[in-house]
Design brief:
The structure holds 2 protein chains of 2 kinds. Chain A is mainly α. Helices cover 79% and strands 0% of the residues of chain A. Chain B is of the alpha+beta class. The chains are: A mainly alpha, B alpha+beta.
Chain lengths: 90, 650
């Protein structure tokens, strides 16, 4: 019959195979988990970019020259500067 | 005991061998097939479509942007039986007529759009109603936040975000970008897992225009006022940088709101600066004058007899609006004599004149980067009779687009070089890196540089007191220009009895041209003369445009007589009202300014005229001043402290 050294060798080999299998399963699970994180982060980035665009639209609408002129006239009583009223400083 | 152990070990070993064998069979023998089956179950290709790129003006002000939206759809066969009762709530949420919503809910089709490009808020409110059978797809919505500003130039998009007009159409390929496909995995709940992430996420490109939103607004405002005040049908303004032929503004009335293009008519949507042509009338005299000077057929001081207002050419009579006798060549332009310019045209000859007109770009498209441009109308030389030459001399029988004529004047303003006008300066990626660049494109030298300069000097006379364009004068600036009043062609043939186009094309400052502005008003009712209707519009636009661009007037020019008394008053003020509490650093010495006691406006005026640099704190009158040295340039900078009373605080 085999000696105990042979049994120890085969047991060690089996242990190594088991460990490798566990590592492979673990990494595969990590890939899936990170994949979920990537997907949700992509969605978040996409959503934030969309919100930023919406804010750009709002900012641009509020600073449109026509709107500013109307607001300046109606709310602040300002009028368009005449030549000579605008001073360009050196 | 040992035998039992061996038996157990043998059984376990056999089991493991069987497992190993099965493992080998699954992974090696059947591996490829199983992997394929798994892939079809949980892998799928996802198409990522970039959001449409933005259009911005030369300063980065957004003119067109796409924002997230949701297109709501309904599957009528999945709606609950009491679908009828849902219609009013849905209609109120989506701001749609109840009847329309009811019709959609009762459709026999398996899939019906409820509302395309709804706002995220509307979609959220619909979802909150919790109606089975109603869902949404991600979409985008195009916004033009500046409203009607530059609308015909920008164009608009379809509901599927494709460009249909204007820049949206001309640069659709860049603005749309390209979709990419990525591989994703699906879990048991149908959720997507992007295990590989997304490399190189697609982004559409952004387009930067040469247009200045501020100048565009100025042009549109003044044009709208003029068209309303004169009861005109329409109007067009073209503003170019003569050194580059970059289009700074392109305005028209009537216009439309690209946020709701369906609510507008084709009449308001077409870009009149390039799609409409008109007979330029007297504004074309400048081009003939340039040809005459360039070929040395005439000298500025040479005199021409203007037949006392009536000139017989064959069986035709050419009339002037005043019965002039002898006029110098300069006066022929200044007073816009048709008879005088006809005689110049006869001297130039039809071959030479036709060659110069084509060299100035007439009869061909300018090549501007906009769709729908027409070449205008310039008959081939073989079709020119003598009377055609005479009428073409004062701009009748030829048709130009506003952009064509403005481009020709830009050539006169930049030393005689015809350049291709352009509207898009750059195409940029999402990081702001330039992907495509457009720049000034020189075509050819039309007239000699000295000819162009001499012609501009003549056109300055038109804007003087004795000229037809005196209403275009701008205080502090030299202005060159030409008025025009032309008959409109009748759809029934010949000319319309009353229809006129009143126009003015100007260059400012004439000594260092920065702007070419063309104004054309279609069928004004109050007056038909370009000098009365269009020249004041030029003045209003140019005045504010020069302020907007920070271009200063020349000292000693028109307007300096107004500045001088103020200057003297300020000097007297400084000498008389030196405060006893004045800080030592403000002691008046030779060349050292004293701002004490001046108002903020007076101090700024003084500083501007003398070229001194200021920083100010507070409001009111200058109570304290200190001179510092700029650490970088070593120039003196005067720091002024102002208080309401102008008194120095203890």
């Amino acid at each position: 019959m085999w000696r105990s050294e042979h049994w120890r060798g085969y047991a060690a080999l089996a242990l190594v195979i088991l460990l490798l299998t566990l590592v492979q399963v673990w990494t595969r699970l990590q890939v899936v988990k990170i994949g979920y994180v990537l997907s949700s982060t992509e969605k978040l980035v996409h959503t934030l970019r969309g919100e930023r665009r919406a804010l750009e639209v709002e900012w641009s609408t509020r600073t449109a020259p026509g709107r500013l002129a109307e607001q300046a006239a109606q709310r602040l009583g300002l009028s368009i500067a005449r030549p000579g009223q605008v001073i360009t400083m050196p | 005991m040992e035998r039992r152990l061996l038996t157990a070990a043998g059984a376990i070993g056999l089991g493991l061998l069987l497992l190993l064998g099965r493992l080998v069979q699954l992974t090696t023998v059947q591996g490829a097939g199983l992997a394929r089956e798994a892939a079809t179950q949980h892998q799928h290709r996802i198409t990522l479509t970039p959001r449409r790129g933005a259009i911005v003006d030369r300063n980065g002000t957004p003119l067109a942007l796409s924002v997230p939206a949701e297109s709501l759809f309904v599957r009528p066969n999945k709606l609950p039986p009491d679908a009828k009762t849902l219609a009013p709530a849905l209609a109120a949420t989506l701001h749609m007529p109840t009847r329309e919503v009811t019709r959609l809910l009762h459709s026999s089709a398996p899939f019906v759009w409820l509302k395309r490009r709804a706002t995220p808020q509307e979609a959220a409110r619909v979802r909150a109603l919790g109606i089975p059978g109603i869902d949404s797809l991600e979409a985008e919505r195009r916004f033009y936040p500046q409203g009607t500003l530059a609308a015909p130039l920008l164009g608009f998009t379809s509901i599927d975000a494709m460009g249909l007009e204007g820049i949206e159409l001309a640069y659709d390929h860049y603005l749309r970008g390209e979709s990419i496909e990525v591989l994703g995995e699906r879990d048991a709940l149908g959720r997507t897992i992007l295990a590989r992430g997304v490399e190189n996420r697609p982004e559409a490109l952004n387009v930067r225009l040469t247009i200045d939103a501020g100048l565009q607004y100025l042009a549109e405002r003044e044009l709208k006022r003029a068209v309303q005040a004169s009861g005109a049908l329409a109007g067009t303004v073209v503003m170019l940088d003569p050194q580059t032929s970059a289009v700074l503004a392109l305005a028209q009335v009537p216009t439309f709101d690209p946020n709701t293009p369906a609510a507008s008519s084709v009449e308001t949507r077409r870009n009149r600066a390039i799609t409409d042509c008109y007979e330029p009338g007297s504004t074309l005299k400048a081009l003939l004058a340039a040809a005459a000077l360039d070929t040395k057929v005439v000298r500025p001081e040479e005199r021409v007899f203007c037949e006392l207002g009536q000139y017989k050419v064959g069986k035709h009579i050419i009339n002037d609006h005043h019965p002039y006798g002898w006029l110098s060549f300069t006066q022929v332009l200044q007073k816009s004599s048709n008879i005088g310019i006809s005689k110049i045209g006869e001297r130039v000859g039809k071959e030479t004149y036709e060659t110069y007109l084509r060299a100035f770009g007439l009869g061909r498209v300018t090549g501007v980067d906009l769709p729908g441009e027409i070449p205008g109308l310039l008959f081939p030389l073989g079709a020119w009779s003598h009377i055609n030459l005479v009428t073409a001399s004062f701009g009748q029988g030829i048709a130009v687009t506003p952009l064509q004529l403005a481009t020709a004047y830009a050539a006169l303003a930049n030393g005689g070089v015809l350049m291709r006008p352009y509207i898009v300066s750059e195409v940029l990626n999402a990081e702001g890196k330039v992907v495509v660049a457009n720049g000034p494109q020189r075509l050819w030298q039309v007239v000699r540089t000295d000819t162009a300069h001499r012609l501009l000097a003549l056109l300055e006379k038109v804007v003087e007191k004795e000229g037809t364009g005196w209403r275009a004068q701008i205080e502090g600036f030299r202005v060159a220009g030409k008025t025009g009043t032309s008959q409109k062609v009748s759809p029934h043939g010949g000319y319309a009895a009353r229809g006129r186009i009143a126009s003015f094309v100007g260059v400012v400052p004439a000594d260092r041209p920065r702007l070419v502005i063309l104004v054309a008003i279609d069928e004004p009712k109050t007056s038909t003369y370009g000098g009365e209707i269009a020249a004041p519009v030029f003045q209003a636009i140019a005045q504010h445009a020069l302020m907007h661009l920070g271009i200063e007037g020349q000292k000693g020019q028109t307007g300096s007589a107004v500045a001088a008394p103020l200057e003297n008053q300020l000097l007297v003020h400084q000498v008389k009202e030196v405060s006893p509490t004045m800080a030592p650093s403000a002691t008046v010495s030779t060349g050292e300014p004293n701002f004490l006691g001046l108002s903020l406006r007076e101090a700024m005026h003084t500083a501007q005229r003398q070229g001194w640099r200021l920083t100010t704190t507070g409001n009111g009158y200058v109570a304290h001043q200190i001179m510092r040295s700029d650490p970088e340039t070593r120039e003196p900078v005067y720091a002024l402290t102002l208080t309401p009373s102008g008194e120095t605080r203890p």
